[in-house]
Amino acid sequence: MSIGEWLLLLVAGLLGGVINSVSSGGSFFTYPALLLTGLTPLSAATTTLAALTPANLAAIPEFWPEVVAQRRRYPRELSLVVAGGLVGIILLLSTGADVFEQLVPWLILAATLLFAISPMLRTWAQQSAPSLTDGLVGAALVFVFSIYLTYFGSGVGNIMLAMFTIRSFGDFFSANVAKNIAMSIGTTMAAVAYTIAGYVSWWPVVPIFIGSWIGGRYGSRWARQVPINALRAFVIIFGLFVAAWQFAR
């Protein structure tokens, strides 16, 4: 790996860590950066899942009071994340690279669109779909999104953020740290499974790991001061660009 590639991945990890600490979409930066270093789509996706784990973990201490305040809600929600994450891992391992590579452009586009509409989804659900808050419908959606988390993962964090907000985790920061914990569990599971399967390329993980840790730990403080709409607009535009690039490949 050249110095230029190392710096590219470091910057991508830094951006991903900052974005993931307060919202989602960090993989929109690390995934294409890994492709540019020569990894296959499957290896780039699984390596991204492994590399962004530190960002989600690093942001948790900043919001620990919110975790303590909502601690009774975690066992049920995280059990759904673990179950769905296992299904996503089994699905990827059983379908293989060919199916995955055909789905990638559509997955990125769908993730970007879901990311874009998640605030509207959250508002609608809170006003018109109370069954999502504590009912089976909401639980089923957390399970489904957890499958996607370990299968591909791009953009799913903001949807999980919307779900945890809907499911009565309180204010934005309480729901956000719940999202970070869920993402940490899912990406750790994926990293272990895909490493055993030989899909994760660990050398590129190092600069992304360093960048995402710094971005997640210290970027979360900075990102609190940035308008959420500005961060979201940036991620949506970049996500659409990556989707278009993948369709053109």
Secondary structure elements and their pairing?
Blueprint: H1 3-22, H2 27-36, H3 41-51, H4 53-59, H5 64-69, H6 74-128, H7 131-134, H8 136-151, H9 156-166, H10 172-196, H11 205-223, H12 228-248
Helix pairs in contact: 1-2, 1-4, 1-11, 2-3, 3-10, 3-11, 4-10, 4-11, 6-8, 6-9, 6-10, 6-12, 8-9, 8-10, 9-10
Polypeptide structure, described:
By secondary structure, this protein is mainly alpha-helical. The chain has one domain. The protein contains twelve helices and no strands. The two termini are 23 Å apart. The model has no long low-confidence stretch (mean pLDDT 81).
Offer a quick outline of the entry.
This protein is mainly alpha-helical.
Strand residues, percent:
under 5%
The helix content, as a percent range, equals over 70%
- The total of helices stands at 12
Tally of domains: 1
Average of the residue pLDDT scores: 81
The assigned structural class equals mainly alpha
Main β sheet profile: none
Which H/E pattern describes the elements? HHHHHHHHHHHH
Low-confidence stretches: none
Give me the count of strands: 0
Q: Give the CA-based shape.
A: globular
Distance between the termini: 23 Å
Q: Keywords, please?
A:
249 residues; mainly alpha; 12 helices; 82% helix
